[in-house]
Amino acid sequence: MTHVVIIGAGGGGLAAAAQLARAGLDVTVLEAHIYAGGSAGTFFHQGYRFDAGATLAGGFAPGAPLDWIGKQFEIDWQVKLAERAMQVHLPDGVQVTRWTDVERWQEERQAAFGHAVEDFWLWQESTADLLWDFALRSPNWPPQNWKDLAGLSRVSLGWLLNSHGARGSSFVPGMLKDAITPLSSRLPHNPHLRQFVDGQLLIAAQATSESANALYSSAALDLSRQGVGHIEGGMGALADKLVEAVRRYGGEVRFRQEVDAVKRMANGLYEVATRQGKNYRADQVIFNLPPANIVELLGEGTPKGFQKKQTIPADGWGAFMVYAGVDEDFLPDDTALHHQVLVEEPFAEGNSVFLSLGPSWDQKRAPSGKRALTISTHTNLDEWWHLFEYDRRAYEQLKSEYTQRLLSAAEAALPGIGKAAELVLPGTPVTFQRFTRRQRGWVGGFPQTHLLRAWGPRISKDLWMVGDSIFPGQSFPAVALGGVRVANSLLAELNRSVVFRESPLEQASI
Fold first, then answer.
1. Which of 106, 208, 215, 256 fits 198 for a cystine, CB–CB 3.0-4.6 Å?
2. Per-residue pLDDT for 160 more than 80?
3. Predicted confidence band at 507 (pLDDT cuts at 50, 70, 90)?
4. CA separation for the pair 121, 115 (Å, rounded)
5. Superfamily classification of domain 3-36+234-313+446-506
6. b (16+ CB within 10 A) / e for 446-466
């Protein structure tokens, strides 16, 4: 029996594990931490359960990615769908609600930005429909060999002709242009619209409209239509459900197993060694890690073509976090659970923050009468690491300044938050490396400035990569789709059949 070791229990690794275990392979997932989910995990601190990084769960609408994943692996997410995806606060105080209902969202955006820009939103929604349908077909993107290219051609042809016919074909010329141009080429001249779009893209594509690829941006802006929901226990409950699926299909998930080396043995198998003194043998290894971490584990055994991927991109982001326990009494009953506050341009570094509150009905998230709150902002990695390594006092001072900056920004959405917070726990990129093992705390994957930034998942014949570095990129539903795609590619290499409970070709358009 083929034995597969998967390093990391994030959404991508667990989805791959579930698919492979369901196909009958011997699968072992090794996770360094005590919980699953990685950056989309939930941790416990002083009676609160805080979402570590990713705080917004989407993709539950019929035919959307997590709906499809749930059907594949017989998972009932037990999600409570939200009417409001988030409340966005523009720099001049204008508020825009991202309703999940299509008609309410159309009315909201027309009231906020005017009817003159409606063609932009119609383009965005139509293009996103096509892209999500394409992603559900597990395309080999980017193709890494002739076999991938042939498979990609088959998927693309079927996607255009079988699913969308003339409609899909008519979009091709525009999509080809969008594939090589930034979203700014599509944006009408409207300051409020540009600020809104830039804020949304920063959290969903790691870039703003001046550089974010137009094609990718259409899907990145599609969040509210994908079915936003809330899970009891926080974001980490999504990963917990996948852990249950892996084990139900006969796979193993082992926690507190931090891998520190992967070596190819003379017999062609791989030895995966952990800091806890355990050794695991594998025919195939899947890394649910950023490329730099993979190179570190493989050491001298890193394939030459992959060695250049050990550097973190210059435009890659880190996150500064504030985890707060707040008194529920100061929150109005109708407070939205997610807010994006845009203070001033350029966004990031506390000039734009994202807030997520635990639902009042979720008793697992906080002590009675309290709520868990996570606040985050994009931040440059280099300054944090320079200060941490060479001036620890300045590092602590900067951490204190950023904490106050985020709490101050949050006042626009939650007035009085500073006084209501009984617990304030800051986190820097250094913190992220310590707890998620992501080298230098790089999060969110590559800024989506062009379609070839995503790497192919195949490192070598027996080594694979999943996570936010491969197509379709960041977010829990995206990495889960990517994990299934990589599992299917591995099964194809082994001449094993891939079984879908419901074919993506039969999914309704999103």
1. 208
2. no
3. very low
4. 10
5. FAD/NAD(P)-binding domain (3.50.50.60)
6. bbbbbeebbbbbbbeebbbbb
> So what's the pLDDT on residue 157?
75
Angle between helices 191-205 and 102-113 in degrees, nearest 10:
130
Taking residues 435-459, what's their average pLDDT?
Answer: 88
Contact 128, 105 (CB under 8 A): no
Cα three-residue angle 188-192-193, rounded to 5 degrees:
40
- Model confidence at 500, pLDDT cuts 50, 70, 90, reads low
Among all chains, which residue has been given the structure tokens 């931040």?
A: 379
Give the residue from 255, 242, 273 showing the smallest Cα distance to 33. 255
pLDDT digits 0-9 by tens, 78-99:
999 999 999 999 999 999 999 9
CA distance 451 to 497: 29
Phi, psi of 316 (to 5 degrees): -70, 150
Band the pLDDT of 170: cuts 50, 70, 90: low
Q: pLDDT tens digits for 59-71?
A: 999 989 999 999 9
499 has a pLDDT exceeding 80: no
CA distance 466 to 242: 15
- Give the N- to C-terminal CA distance of the chain in Å, as an integer: 38
> Using CA atoms, how far apart are residues 338 and 147, in angstroms rounded to an integer?
43
Average pLDDT, the chain: 91
The DSSP code sequence of 444-473 is S-S--SSTT-SBPSBSSSSEEE-STTBTT-
Query: Closest Cα to residue 48, out of 322, 240, 321, 324?
Result: 324
Half-sphere exposure of 145 (CA within 13 A, CB side): 8
Task: Return the bridge partners of 352, or none.
Answer: 342
Task: Please state, in angstroms and rounded to a whole number, the distance separating the CA atoms of residues 94 and 89.
Answer: 6
Tally of CB atoms within 10 A around 332: 8
Tell me the mean pLDDT in the region 459-468.
95
The 3-state DSSP composition of the chain as helix, strand, coil percent (nearest 5) reads: 45, 20, 35
CATH number belonging to domain 317-441: 3.30.519
pLDDT tier at 506, thresholds 50, 70, 90: very low
404 pLDDT above the threshold of 80:
yes
Q: Please say whether the beta carbons of 488 and 25 come within 8 A.
A: no
Q: Could you tell me the residue ranges of all domains in the chain?
A: 3-36+234-313+446-506, 98-226, 317-441
Answer yes or no: are the C-beta atoms of 470 and 459 closer than 8 Å.
no
What the block records as the tokens of 198 is 């830039």
DSSP 172-226: HHHHHHHTTSBGGGT--S-HHHHHHHHHHHHHHHSS-TTTSBHHHHHHHTTGGGG
Q: Where are the beta strands (DSSP E) in 347-407?
A: 352-357, 370-379
Closest CA to 433 of 344, 321, 318: 318
